[in-house]
Amino acid sequence: MKMDDILKYGIKKILVVNLGGIGDLLLSTPALRVLKENYPESEISILVVPRLYEIARDLRYIDQVFIFYKEGYYSLPRFLKNLLCLFRLRRMGFDICLNMRTLVSKKSAKKIKFIFYIIHPRIKAGRDTDGRGWFFDIKIPESLKDNKWEAEYDIKMMEALGIKVSDRGFDFPLDSDSIDNLRRILLRNGVSEKETLVGIHPGGKPSHRWQVQNFIKVIDEISKVRNCRFIITGDNQDLDLTKWFRRVDTVNLIGKLSLKELGALIKRCDLFISNDTGPMHIAAILKTPLIAIFGPGYLSRYDPRHISNKAVVFYKNTICSPCDKLRCKTMHCLRDIYPEGVIAKALDFL
C-alpha cells in the first residue's frame, strides 16, 4: 500500500512521541484533538516523560499513555525499562508514528531515530530540524533560527497529513477531585476561599530562574499596598528555593501539589507570576492574569501572549540570547529585568 493510501484508509493505530515538558505537551493539544476528530475510529497512543503521565491520561482524545525515561536514560535500569516499553510499542503495530518535538541536536536526533527504529511504524513523521530529521517519511521543515510559534509546527504536521486545524484552543484537564483537593490544601494552610491569591513560581530550569531576591522584593512591595496571600509553587527539583521564602509571609507549596492540583491553584489565583516554565503555559491556557519573566528562552516560540490576552511578558533581548544553556554564570538576560516594573504591573492586575 502506498503512503497516500495508508493515510486515507489504513490509519488504525497512531503513536505520538512527545518527550518535551509541560508546555510542549499543552501546546500540542489543538493538533492532538483534531487528529482524533479526523480519525475517530483509530487508537491514539502517546509516549511522554513520567511527569506528564497525569495530564496525558486525562486528555479525552488520547487512548493510551506510555512512559519514556529521559533522565537517567543511560543508566541500566532506566535503559531496560525504556527498551521494554519500546518493544511493547513495536508489538502493537502502529500505522504511523509522529514526533512532535524539535530535534535540538544530533544527539537528540539519534535518540528519536533509535526510538522509531525499535517501534517500526509503517510511516514515520516528524520535524526535520535543520536537516536532522532525514529519516522521517513525512518531514516538517524547521530551523532553530525560525521565529514561528511552537504550536504552529504541530499544526503543520496535521496539514501534512491532510488535516485542517480550525479550532486552535488549548486544553488543560482540570477535574473536580483536583479542585477539591486544592481547596482542602489551602484551608489546611489557613487560606480562605475569599482571599486574594498571588501565585509565585520561582523555579524551573536553572538558567531560566529570575533571582529569588527579586521575587521576595515583589512580595514585600505588593504586601505594603494590597491585602493578598502569596502561594509559592514548584516541583521537587525546586525544593532548594524553600529556604529563601521563610522570611516573608507566604504559603509554601513547593513539591506538595500534583500537576492537576497546581492547575487548580493557578485557576484559583488572581495573579500568577512565573519564570519561563511549564506553569506559565498552564496559567495562559486557564486565562489567569499572568506575569511571565522570560530569560534565555525562545520568546517567539513560547510567548504566552499567543494564548492569553491576560499575559504580560518581561524580556530583555541580550546579545547571548536565546540559548539552550542549563546554567549560566552571567545571567545578563534576567539580571536586566528589575523588580520595579514587575511590581507596577502586578499592582495594575490587583
Describe the structure.
Helix content is 38%, strand content 16%. The protein is globular, with a radius of gyration of 21 Å. Helix 3 (29-38) packs parallel to helix 7 (150-160), helix 8 (176-188) crosses helix 10 (259-268) and helix 9 crosses helix 14. With 350 residues, the protein is of the alpha/beta class. Strands 3-2-1-4-5-6 form a six-stranded parallel beta sheet, sandwiched between helices. It has a six-stranded parallel beta sheet with strand order 9-8-7-10-11-12, with helices on both faces. Strand 7, helix 9 and strand 8 (229-232) form a beta-alpha-beta unit.
Sequence-ordered SSE layout with sheet pairings:
Elements: H1 3-9, E1 13-17, H2 22-27, H3 29-38, E2 43-48, H4 53-56, E3 64-67, H5 76-92, E4 96-99, H6 106-119, E5 123-129, E6 138-142, H7 150-160, H8 176-188, E7 197-201, H9 212-225, E8 229-232, E9 251-252, H10 259-268, E10 271-275, H11 278-285, E11 290-294, H12 299-302, E12 311-315, H13 332-335, H14 339-349
Parallel strand pairs: 1-2, 1-4, 2-3, 4-5, 5-6, 7-8, 7-10, 8-9, 10-11, 11-12
Helix pairs in contact: 3-7, 8-10, 9-14
